[in-house]
Amino acid sequence: MKKSFLIAACLPLLLLPPVFAAQDGGIESLRQTAKAFSSVARKVSPSVVFIHVEGRSPDAENGTGDWPFQDDLLRRFFGDDFPGLARPAPKKPRRAVGQGSGFVFSTRGDSAYILTNSHVVEDAERIRVKLHDGREYDAALQGTDPRSDVAVLKVEARGLTALKWGDSAKLEVGEWVVAMGNPFGLSHTLTTGVVSAKGRTSLGINDYEDFIQTDAAINPGNSGGPLLNLDGEVVGVNTAIFSRSGGHMGVGFAIPSKLARTIAEQLLASGRVVRGYIGLTVQPLNMEIAEALQLTQTRGALVNEVQAGSPAEQAGLRAGDVLTHFDGIPLADGGQYRNRAAMATPGSSVTLGLIRDGKPLQIAVQVRLLDEDAVQRAEAAAALGIAVRGLTPDETRRVRVAKAVVVTGVAPRSVAALAGIRPGTLILEVNRRPVGSAEEYAAALVENGEAGSVLLRIADNGRSRQVNLRWR
């Protein structure tokens, strides 16, 4: 018994050296990981910038600030002489200050080009960037693409180095990543984490989504900063967080470098983005619809509309088709279809794999150039909820106006309906621009469509008035 006890008692002593060796190896591994993070910080910090934005507050110039009846509700019914309706003078727009992050992605001579998020520089009147060494420069907006939330700035500065692009397609879930930016105005802050998911779509953040999800801490002010791999290469652009508190909760989203780089290079070259157009609208394929279509899985996208005269209609696509592949690449959902359709080169041909009546098909489609102005017109018109037409010669003589369009329909609970606009109301001006046809009305909406508001001068009950409609 004593012998057995002694042997058992000595076993822990015999095992100590290997345990210590294992601990030393683990600590050394942690040291190497820490050195990798430090190396990334040293390499990229000179190319990451703090962005300070000055602009106007969203208060409308023709609004009334604290005036509770912004749509002239009482004035509409009781007239200008109603007691107590003295309207306060419009407030002057206040200065608004914002901040974000960005990074140098290209240099040409004495010029450096900085990538950031579109929402960081939205409505900016002055943009300043601050470098890691304390230098500050005024920046000019080279181009912006709100649909993907990418913007490019230009600064006249020497000696800057562009960060290298990494391949976001090669990222794997669980891989280490580093986020660099200026959260809460704390310049050049580094946080680390892993890729927690890829290909996040249909989140409602951007029109075109293919987000990298990460648990690296991303907070307000990080927007536009780079997401990097351990080689210091940009694999994403930090854009948004999921949060109930306004701060980091372990779920952040970054635009993948493949998408951000394509958009940034187009903005750098021409100040605008060219997208492909096929002419399909799609919806998610849930289990109920899949079962009704006798499908065994929900991967793919269900075609719910084929636009008249579109490449899709000409190629023979139909509502009810289930898209499964885009040029041989499997489609997980409708978000992936929209991204790939937009990235397709106008003039090229793509092959859509689909299931129709339970049978697999492949259909070639010729890609056209997407008319962004037409998209904006449609979105603005849908947001307002107004349908219009031009006046007939008899109507023009009867209402005694030089130019106008007449409202023929108003969507229930739309911003127009809430403002008291109804069928028969005349629209004289859109953003101070006289309109005399449905085409002029649509074109005028585009001029201010991205701002999410429009100023209308309308006439009803024999009086004209100004109405500012906001849908964002």
Describe the structure.
The chain has 472 residues and is of the alpha+beta class. It folds into 4 domains: 108 residues, Trypsin-like serine proteases (Thrombin, subunit H, Beta Barrel), CATH 2.40.10.10; 103 residues, Thrombin, subunit H, CATH 2.40.10.10; 94 residues, Pdz3 Domain; 99 residues, Pdz3 Domain, CATH 2.30.42. Helix content is 25%, strand content 35%. The strands form 5 sheets. A 6-stranded antiparallel β-barrel has the order 1-2-3-6-5-4. Helix 7 crosses helix 10. It is globular, with a radius of gyration of 29 Å. The N terminus is likely disordered.
- Structurally, the number of domains stands at 4
Using the coordinates shown, work out and report the CATH topology of the largest domain.
Thrombin, subunit H
Regarding CATH, which class of the largest domain?
Mainly Beta
Q: Categorize the overall geometry.
A: globular
The count of β-strands is: 26
Q: Largest sheet, described in full? A: 6 strands, antiparallel, barrel
Which percent bin holds the helix content? 25-40%
- Walk across the major sheet and give the strand order: 1-2-3-6-5-4
Low-pLDDT regions: 1-16, 59-91
Q: What is the count of helical runs? A: 10
What would a concise description of this structure say?
By secondary structure, this protein is an alpha+beta fold. The protein contains ten helices and 26 strands.
